[in-house]
Amino acid sequence: MPVPAAPPPPTSRLLGCLRTWLTGLSAAFLAGCDFAFSTPLRLVGARPEEGPHVVIVTSAVIRTEMRGAFVRESRRLLEEMQSADGLLATSIRFQPLGSRVWTLTAWRSREHARAFAGSAGHRRARQAMDRALVSFRSATRELPATAFPPSWQTALPWLEDETAPAEAP
């Protein structure tokens, strides 16, 4: 009578699951998947109690050879932004193997967003990053306090909304 095979040890099952997951992930990248990571939404200011707040989502395609410089400048700008008056929240989204990057910011008002956009730090960053850009899009929306905090799921479709007029912050 044959002896039944022993079940594989738990580490073998774990490695098998990991191998399957990595194979699927690799196939997605090879198939041109738009896989992206997002940082957790960093809440900076107090939650808006009443009235609307302004949410800005941006999307940029970066020249491959300038990706490192763009990432360094973006990190510097995001750190500087943390002390900007009126900032409520920030997040960044990127393709680990691609060339797209997105930002999501929430502000107390359009005036606060405009003040940061006109700051010396933002102007310097825009000049440094413009050489790296292949394309750039942004969308701005006012949302009620009940819609805070903003989400990527809500904001990303705004970039594709061709019927909405282009808005400055």
Describe the fold and architecture.
With 169 residues, the chain is an alpha+beta fold. Helices cover 35% and strands 24% of the residues. Strands 1, 2, 3, 4, 5 and 6 form a six-stranded antiparallel beta sheet that branches. The C terminus is likely disordered.
* Distance separating the two termini: 78 Å
Approximately what portion of the residues adopt beta-strand conformation?
Answer: 15-25%
Sheet with most strands: 6 strands, antiparallel
Average pLDDT figure: 80
Broad structural category:
alpha+beta
Any idea what the shape is? globular
The CATH class name reads Alpha Beta
What's the count of strands? 6
What is the total domain count?
1
* Contiguous helical run count: 5
For the CA atoms, what is the radius of gyration?
A: 21 Å
Low-pLDDT segments, ≥5 res:
165-169
Helix content: 25-40%
> Any idea what the CATH architecture is?
2-Layer Sandwich
The run of helices and strands is HEEEHEEHHEH
CATH T-level fold name: Alpha-Beta Plaits
